[in-house]
Specification:
single chain, 9-stranded antiparallel β-sheet, 29% strand
Length: 274
């Protein structure tokens, strides 16, 4: 095993599955469909989440939006779809990340927020259907920082659009390298500025891949041993981690799935409207 950084501490056995020296392949699927002339439907699923969004528009204005939480980690996540209502009356944009100009991200479920941005962009795309899948290859866990945060070895993440490779990265030490362009980019500060400099399609690809890469790290954790969102000791980055909700956001047990070898089982609701 590679050298572990000096600031690595003893792991907290309550939250870590020591049998996992590798996290296993992680998948995330997103399906976007024009339901009718004024309606776009999106579904998203990975090992930890399963959400759907319906957006109704009249020309360039959003007239209705709703979401369904099928599978989620905290009890409070089931109420997050209601936070989308301020989107009604806003204009749609072809750039999915522009959703951040229309909604306060930290008051949203991160994954519903991302999916809503993709649904909004699809409403302007002029095609009936698009399907995404990200595949993050297994990463070795080199050690643990602050008792429970994994330190990962390198990996590769690939994005398939309608079954065809659209983008691929090598990821190591919090940075990605684009396989086609050779561009180096930190996953943290400066990432959004970089995606905004890309064309609409590539910016969407990169935004999807970053989130999938971050979510894939959850495969190293035993989520059911966290009694509530507060126990994860995370910043107020989303709906359930807000200080006003985190203590009451109780763990939804037995909601983690493993799709490493069974992508065909994903998006079982894709033929329905949220």
């Amino acid at each position: 095993m590679a050298d572990v950084p000096e600031n690595t501490l003893t792991i907290d056995h309550k939250f870590i599955d020591e049998s996992k020296t590798h996290t296993g392949r992680a998948r995330r699927m997103i399906d976007l469909k024009r339901w009718d002339q004024h309606t776009v439907v999106g579904w998203l699923e990975d090992d930890f989440h399963h959400f759907g969004v319906t957006l109704v528009h009249e020309g360039t204005v959003i007239t209705d939006v709703s979401a369904t939480a099928v599978r989620y980690p905290w009890t409070s996540c089931g109420f997050a779809p209601h936070a989308l209502q301020p989107l009604i009356g806003k204009t749609i944009s072809p750039r999915s990340s522009d959703i951040g100009q229309r909604l306060a991200m930290r008051e949203q479920c991160t994954h519903i927020f991302d999916l809503t941005g993709l649904v909004m962009a699809h409403a302007m795309r002029g095609i009936a259907h698009r399907h995404y899948q990200t595949i993050t290859e297994s990463r070795q866990i080199l050690g643990w920082k602050n008792h429970k945060n994994p330190i990962f070895g390198p990996t590769t993440i690939c994005l398939l659009q309608d079954g065809i490779k659209a983008m691929q990265w090598h990821s190591e030490r919090g940075e990605i390298v684009d396989s086609d362009t050779g561009h180096h980019q930190a996953l943290g500060r400066g990432f959004r500025e970089w995606t905004e400099s890309l064309d609409v399609e590539c910016g969407e690809y990169a935004t999807i891949m970053r989130r999938a890469l971050l979510v894939s790290g959850g495969r190293s954790m035993v989520h059911d041993n966290y009694p509530n969102a507060a126990a994860m000791d995370q910043p107020e980055l989303c709906y359930s981690f807000q200080a006003s909700r985190r203590e009451k956001a109780m763990r939804m047990h037995n909601t983690t799935k493993d799709y490493a070898d069974s992508p065909e089982a994903m998006l079982a609701c894709v033929a329905t409207k949220p």
